[in-house]
Fold these 2 entries.
Entry 1:
Amino acid sequence: MNAIKSPYDLAIIGAGIGGLALGTILSARGKRVLILEKNSWVGGRVTSYERDGFQIDLGAHVISRSDKGPLGEILRLAGKENRVTFQYVRPLTSFQGKIFAFPRGLEELIPGRDFQDLMRMLQTMTSMTDAETHEFDLEDLRSYIQRFTRNPLSVSCLNNICMVYVCLPYFEASAGEFIRCLKWEAGARASGYPEGGCRSISEALADFIREKGGKILTTAPAAKILVRDNAVRGLESPGAFFPARTIISNADPYHTVIELTGREFFPDDYLEKVQSLTYSYSMLNLRLALKEPVASWKLLTHIGSDNPELYEENTRADLVPDDVSIFCPVPSNFAPAVAPPGRQLLTAGAIIPYSTSRIEEWREAILKTLDRLIPGYRDKLLWVEKTTPADINQAVGESGAIIGAGQSTGQVGKNRLPSETPVQGLYLCGSEAGGSGVGIELAIRSAQDLAEKICR
Ligand SMILES: Cc1cc2nc3c(=O)[nH]c(=O)nc-3n(C[C@H](O)[C@H](O)[C@H](O)COP(=O)(O)OP(=O)(O)OC[C@H]3O[C@@H](n4cnc5c(N)ncnc54)[C@H](O)[C@@H]3O)c2cc1C
């Protein structure tokens, strides 16, 4: 093993969007950063690959506030805002053959009184201050909604948005966290998608870190975090040792604490918190390459049932429904370069249990749901490719979770696992510790908050 005297101020485990955002902020503040990434690519879940001229994202990414949220702040800090151009997307909702924009489109579909109740609730949510939202961190979203409305379609639409934001059903998600996601997104009105696919985001940030003298080693898994006298001393990777007095892990807390560091360095109550973390749901994601355009929308979420509790119970029992709730962005409708000229790239993702034994049935049920939304699309199909929860688990861990640690009532705000750990110099960063918001923004906000603590 080569002992290297580190020319770096700190080491980051993982080049996911959380690790890259932190590396960007610290590089901009004059720190020299070393990042070890186990995969051969940077970006973790925020990456894309090519097949037959189609640029396919590993995840199904629509970014909540695009350049008007934390991602825009990081890109501007790196001076890379011109490298990533966002196309804004106004999402549509579909239910039982009707396609509408939430919430205004519901005016035609539900009684007037119910519509007013819904609008009153949305107005209450969006006018809260950030501090006020925390009053609802411990309340689940369902019980909060029931103060205003019990209309099945209103409730199903809100559960659907909750699934998109935090990938948990509304009876598990924290109302406070949902309200923050909603009010931030509604305030910006800038949900969007990067023109070059999601890879363009991660690559722009990685380039900035390198330009500032940082080093990103890919295919370089961290194998051990060395601790002495309750303080980190360095990182082992196969064939190399990197001394470091500050180590930030963008990897899963369980992996970082238990597998990389060792139980013996942590108090029991902290181990208990890490071991009992629960994660967001996992997804089967289909990508459909089409000979010619078949769908006119940019982003559609289809609601399979207006009984979210029953739908959820059946999903957990691995019972495949006829009408599947799907998240269906059409990336080539807002970023034409992700498909060859004249072709269309359509994605359709559905929440499924991680341990499903029915992947092929889920796949076929999603395709049949699309038959009803887009009659005749199969005649234009070139191929269908799928990403399963096991694929996501293999790429980034965390049981294939879509987001990371779930934003449920016990795991947000003051109850979220903090970025600081009991070991001096060891921190966590990304969508598993600290932060608030939707997916990518959650991970970036975790990095932004941690950077303030490290540089204090
Ligand atoms: C199918 C899917 C769809 C999604 N859709 C959206 C969406 O539309 N909008 C949205 O905002 N978010 C979406 N997300 C969620 C979003 O992608 C994640 O919340 C976010 O990217 C998490 O970033 P992260 O940096 O915390 O973690 P990760 O992306 O998991 O990065 C962690 C990194 O650490 C590395 N690592 C782990 N262990 C080690 C080790 N021992 N040594 C070195 N490296 C290691 C991993 O390889 C990985 O690169 C989606 C995710 C999926 C899977």
Entry 2:
Amino acid sequence: MSYLEIKNLQKKYTANGPLIVNNMNLSIEKGEFIVFLGPSGCGKTTTIRMISGLEEITGGDITIDGESIVNKLPRERGVSMIFQSYAVWPHMTVFDNIAYPLKLQKLPKDEIKQRVEKAAQATEIQGLLKRYPAQMSGGQRQRVAVSRAIVVEPKLFLMDEPLSNLDAKLRVTMRTELKRIHTQQGSTSIFVTHDQSEAMSMADRIVVMYKGKIEQIGTPMEVYQDSATRFVAEFIGTPPTNFFDASIVKEGKELYAKGEGFCYKVPASLHQSLADYVGKEVDMGIRPEYIDIAPQKKEGEGYLCDAEIDFIEPQGSHSILITGIGTNQNVKIHTVEYMDMKPGTKVSCYVKNEMVMFFDRETTKRIK
Ligand SMILES: Nc1ncnc2c1ncn2[C@@H]1O[C@H](COP(=O)(O)OP(=O)(O)OP(=O)(O)O)[C@@H](O)[C@H]1O
Ligand SMILES: [Mg+2]
């Protein structure tokens, strides 16, 4: 049995309304850093509010250490939550802000002082305990909110987009801080974001959500390299995966994925799984870094098509080349080799290392 188990969890806000969380199942081990990732409205906040007890569940169960928590009050669950708008109380000093949940528990004064100092040390604001929030930067206020959440030494630490109010640079710094605190405290954490790069850089495992359902659960590398659905392939990665409308065609012993403007010989490793799709349409996905280009025409292994580069987006360490292939006029190619390529250059495009993904049109699931 895992530490936290979510079983067939469901949520409707109104009796006849839609299922906002639709039969969710998830097991989390002690000490894991889990990220809920998905677009706006997919049910991330609703789910963690149900775990914290701020929202009632419609169906299913949630257990911690084997014990159901759904009938417990929020404060009996051993869970601490940080919200998107990091509410720190302006009329209280930093010390009093952090001490507040411990005062509610009516702990002895000495113990409160000791624990506040320890929490402030973890977030490196021990020198600011006498200040008021108005005298601090956004990042420092965020640390106060983090300190107040960890001071209760929660079994489970829930964070709902805690970094979204910070500027880009501070977000990146605070990411690392939160991860460090998580490790130091030995907590189990669930962190919500719709920022895929935040998710990739922080998570032990990412739970990709879409329309109230889990699309995939996996390590950052798994969801990236081995996307389970078209949605995951599209949502994760910048720029996102390039998609092409393809028909699977059999010629002799070979299978080809053909579409307007391209023809790709399917690698033998995919013959078996694509056998049922001969004569059918599928979605073909190739990530920008898995399209190789060559300035002179040469067909061969992995050949996809010839194309003309329309735009270049230099990124410093690499460039993004933009070209049109058939019906997809916004194909992006990540290149380190041809960073200075001029618009109008004619190239041949290849799929690198057979890194191609095919998706079923109806189920949107990966064919593999
Ligand atoms: N109190 C409520 N009553 C009715 N519907 C609600 C309520 N709260 C949220 N919803 C709806 O439930 C769905 C999921 O909302 P939720 O806040 O969980 O999304 P989210 O994934 O956290 O999105 P975001 O990234 O924008 O924060 C949305 O369609 C939302 O409109
Ligand atoms: Mg939300």
